[in-house]
Amino acid sequence: MKQAEFERQHTSLWQSYEATLDGDAATASALPGLYRNVCAHLSLAKQRRYSPELIGRLNDLASRGYFVLYGASHRHQRLWLRFFAVDFPRTIAKNRRYVLGAVLLFVLPGLAMGLSAYFTEDVIYSMFHPSEVRHFEAMYDPANARVGRERDAGDDWMMFAHYVYNNIGIAFRTFATGLLFGLGSAFFLVYNGLAMGGVAGHLTRAGYGVTFYPFVIGHGALELTAIALSGAAGLRLGAALLMPGKLSRLNALRGAAGESAIIIYGASAMLLVAAAVEAFWSSRSALPDGLRLGVGTILWLLVLFYLCSGRKRGT
Amino acid sequence: MPGALDTLHRVVTPENIDLQAEAAGPLSRCLAYLVDLALRTGVMIVLGLLTLPLGQVGGGLLLLAWFLLDWFYPVMFEVLARGQTPGKRMLGLRVVNSDLSPVGWNVSLIRNLLRTVDFLPMGNLLALLSMCMSERFQRLGDLAAGTLVIYVPQVPRGVPLPGVPTMAPPLPLSPDEAQAIINFTRRSHQLSGERQRELAAVLEPARPARASDPVAYWQGVGLGLMGES
Predict the structure, then answer these.
(1) Do A161 and B61 touch (CB under 8 A)?
(2) ipTM value of the model?
(3) The pTM is what?
């Protein structure tokens, strides 16, 4: 069949197909049939070597139908309740080796640095500039009326935004640099562990623990775990590159990326809540320390229980 | 086949046809990035002026806006605007999965979070290296997420055909020969008269004596093969 004749025969079908693609609801149920027709026309046009313009047009029509028919449906992406109840804990359970590794990379340097800062005066200065040390000493000095930062309600908002920007940014970077064979994630985990351990040890040594721990315990439950989790997601990426198993490195990386995305969603949500807790709850130094310590402990237990809940379902 | 050399990306669908798309290279992607960067900067300046009177709360809102724009600007557009940020739309680019289907949240999040690594050590150097070394100009984020950036196909316009009378072929033609003559006819508006006469001379032995103008004759045969009347 010659091209002009071919076009004359099928133009009306292509037009109704295009109208359906553009959202003509009346013919929506006809789309799969029309799509198969267009696919057949594309094969015919190629085989009969019709003009590049016609083949290009049919290729475009078929691609758009393919997008509509095989693209991910947005309807199935709103299952956030299922995500937090099932997917997130289960993915953590499935990747518990990486989670454990990240926790160790985070906690061991933190403990070591904390203990040495507690027992010796000057080890903190190997990590921080003296002006920084004076700054966080002043923040948690029990002699100050309001611990944390001096501020009013407007400042709370400012600090909330600051925590979101800063902490989630750290989590994202800790995750992403895992692509460098896990080295970036490991570096950020160790570095943050050292910094936080150092500050805690130094403040405890200075006798500021009575103000420091009630302040950090609440949001720490969510923040520290989320940082460790994003590190675990990064280690997962790095491990896929280093130990791809029976897959090619590229395919191993793609499999790892899907799972780490789930961990990153969860960790970001935790950090968002942590920022709110830190800005609006932890800073309430007027509340009794016992209350804040108690609530903080309950938060820790809840978070740990939740994060471990994926194991029961068996993976 | 030119497939090994050019940047066409082919995907075989369940209907057993292969769809084609052209992978976009570093230059147009860089331009799209710069357009997006300018746009984001503009939005931040406007927001900064708007939130200036709000004091600390305004500062907080601005910081939140910056956080969202910094990390989620590409994700929102890629998922909700069919794979196109404004910069990509301007340059005619689109992000798709490697099977040409539209990207979802997970995939877009991965490819955009990993920008952090693509940016290393400075100025997207790793991204450029990765694009030059991968088959479909994929940066590291693309490789991990299994995506690529393609040119949005421009639906081609018809070409002007020569106004000559239609002719029947002088002898049975193989599909390749017919295709060559059709292409000769279709490209007549791009070739100089000199070149057209030169090409028509190649077919001289097959031309019947009654056709006086070889160029017009072969163009007519081409029209006939295409089925134009």
Answers:
(1) yes
(2) 0.75
(3) 0.75
